[in-house]
């Protein structure tokens, strides 16, 4: 990725967040299981929050919530590192849905880490650190749900 200006980076990231939110909403509409519907809707809402953070940065409104955000180390249990990309199919099982979501969050985390490493402005770095942390939290939550589910299934 070669961006000429910061706004290009931010617009690209916003497109990715909107794409993720749209994906989760569309997948949720196609699901017949209420648990999967709710999980996908929650994921979509989280992605829209990230898009709003990026929009604030674009509008020069990096507010005190970004400045006061406490960064913490998020453990990476690396489950998604050992699975292949999964394609969404309506009615796919809970395990596959978790694998799909884990991989999407892993890819988002990689993207934000790359954007962070290419940033020079401290406010921009802070925002990308926040987005990295948020994606890492989602990834960890999904990987934990996956482990719990697999344990229940006897695997």
What does it look like?
The chain has 155 residues and is mainly alpha-helical. The chain has a single domain (6-152), classed as Ferritin, core subunit, four-helix bundle (Ferritin, Up-down Bundle). The protein has helices at residues 6-30, 34-58, 64-67, 94-117, 122-152. Helix 1 runs antiparallel to helix 2, helix 1 runs antiparallel to helix 4 (94-117) and helix 4 (94-117) runs antiparallel to helix 5 (122-152). The chain starts with 5 loop residues before the first helix and ends with a helix. The mean pLDDT is 86.
CATH topology: Ferritin
How many discrete domains?
1
CATH architecture descriptor name = Up-down Bundle
Low-confidence stretches: none
Rg from Cα: 16 Å
What's the β-strand tally? 0
- Main sheet specs: none
CATH superfamily: Ferritin, core subunit, four-helix bundle
Helix content: over 70%
CA-CA gap between termini: 40 Å
Give keywords:
5 helices; 70% helix; mainly alpha; 155 residues; Ferritin; globular
């Amino acid at each position: 990725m070669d961006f000429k200006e910061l706004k290009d980076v931010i617009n690209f990231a916003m497109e990715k967040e909107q794409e993720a939110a749209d994906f989760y909403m569309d997948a949720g509409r196609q699901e017949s299981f209420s648990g999967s519907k709710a999980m996908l809707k929650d994921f979509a809402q989280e992605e829209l929050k990230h898009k709003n953070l990026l929009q604030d940065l674009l509008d020069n409104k990096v507010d005190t919530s970004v400045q006061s955000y406490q960064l913490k180390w998020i453990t990476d249990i690396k489950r998604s590192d050992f699975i292949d990309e999964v394609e969404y199919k309506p009615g796919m099982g809970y395990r596959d849905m978790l694998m799909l979501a884990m991989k999407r969050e892993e890819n988002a985390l990689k993207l934000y880490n790359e954007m962070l490493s290419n940033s020079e402005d401290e406010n921009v770095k802070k925002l990308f650190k926040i987005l990295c942390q948020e994606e890492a939290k989602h990834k960890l939550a999904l990987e934990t749900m996956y482990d719990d589910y697999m344990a229940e299934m006897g695997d």
